[in-house]
Every structure is written in structure tokens, then in C-alpha cells.
Amino acid sequence: MSAQQQLLQIIEQKLAQDNLILPTLPEVALKVRQQTDAPNVSLNALADIISNDTALAARVIKLANSAFIGRSIKVSSLNQAVTRIGLSQIRNIVIAMALEQIFTSSHQALQQQLTWQWQRNVQITSIAVACLAFYNSQHGHNNLSLDVLTLVGLVHNIGALALINEAEQFQDILGEPRFLQHVSRKLAPKVSEKILSSWQFEEQFIYVVKHWGFIKPEAEQAGYTDFIRLAMIAKDQYEDKALQQRLLDYYVAQKLVPSDKFMQQPEINTVYQNIRAVFI
Prior knowledge:
Blueprint: H1 3-17, H2 27-37, H3 43-51, H4 54-64, H5 78-85, H6 87-98, H7 108-139, H8 146-155, H9 159-166, H10 177-198, H11 203-211, H12 224-234, H13 241-253, H14 266-279
Helix pairs in contact: 1-10, 2-3, 2-6, 3-5, 4-5, 6-8, 7-8, 7-9, 7-12, 7-14, 9-10, 10-11
Organism: Rheinheimera salexigens
Protein name: Histidine kinase
Domain HDOD: 22-215
């Protein structure tokens, strides 16, 4: 049995026996979530928590001053930044930004895989949010929030993180990203579901990680899963190209995006670049 077959078999066994080691949510994300769940939550208290993580605090200020937020007057303090972003969005935004902390390894080859996976997630997220921003501008009020989709995008394939970490013991395949990507496509949705359940994420997040890989639209109305699928289409990630094209044609007909060349639309591409810049 090859090392690749061994890895796949071991992961499948650990999944079946519920023995796969899952990543933990960063401490700052846990504290922010606890604070926002408190009945007497305050923006100042949230800023105090975030301030303990210098890199995260700088990124929050960067977001508050970004073109995506769209304010001409710059803020210089974390308290101002948190206030500008707002209580309704700061929870998901901070958790999303903190996730990068768990995409790390002391093993060089493994770190390359984790860096690639994080950058991929950022790209998918940025495309998805840009498409939703366009959709919202055209269709007015709906129940889809940009901050929720930001977090959805960054965790939609979080199971790949655990799978890449599991591969560390198989040194001879760490240099084969195609195999690890194959394992991710096959098993990541199941692992993602387990991770988000262990992190006590809401059902709307778990629904997306279970369904984004299906090349079909949501049954009743546009949902977060559809915008993740649009991002996957933009990156040409689905193996069945005929189904991928039919799904894109449907999304264009439903006016989720203006055309099949939607990433060339200035309204979408500009927002995509603005969001991506926040995570670079």
C-alpha cells in the first residue's frame, strides 16, 4: 500500500472512530465570541480584548480604514476602528481574521501547504463577498450579511487544515499538493462539519461546509452557499465543467452576477481587491 493510500485510509478510520485531532479556535476569537454573547456587551470591552493581539488589532484598524468600509476620515485607534465596524459585524470579522493564526506549522513543507490553503480561502472569500455586495446593491434588503459571508468563506473548507496536519507523518507526500487537494475534496466537508460543531458554530455555517461542493443552486432563494459556489466557479475549481457552466448560467439568469465574465465587472473586481487587501 502506498503512503498516499495509507494516509487516506488512516484519515477515514479516524473520522469513523471520531479520533481525528481537530484544530482549536484561537483564544482571542473565543474571548470575542464570549463577550458578544454577554448581555452587557460593550465595544470598549471588545477593543480591550482585541488589543492584546497586536497583529489582529492592526488588521482591524486596517479594515476600518479600508475602501471596503468606505469612509474618507481615517481612524487611528482600535476603539475608533471597532466603533466604525460596529457591534453587529465585529464578532464575525474578528473571528475570521484570527483564523490565520491556526494555519501554521514548524514543518516547512507543511507550512507551504497551509499557506496555500489560507491564501485560497482568502481568495474564495473575497470573490464571494464581492459578488454578494453587488447582489445586495441590485436587490435591496435581504437576509445575507457581508460579515457573515466573510466568516463563512474562511471556514468553508476548514477541514483541509486538519487533513494537511494529519499528513505530517507522511513525509514523502508533503511535496505533492495535488494529492492533498484530492484528499481535501474527498474528506474536507466531513472534517469541516466536525470542526465547526466542536467550535459551536451556528447551523448556517455548518450547512455551507456540507453543501458548497454540490454543483447546484439553493432550492428557494440565494444563500451563502451560492456565493461560495460563484467564487469556486470564478477560480474554475469544479471538476465537472459542464455542470459548472450550467450553474453559472443559472446564476446569471437569476441576476446574482451581471454576466458570466463577472470578475471583469469593475463593481465586483474593485470590491474583491479591497477585501483581499485587508487579509494580505
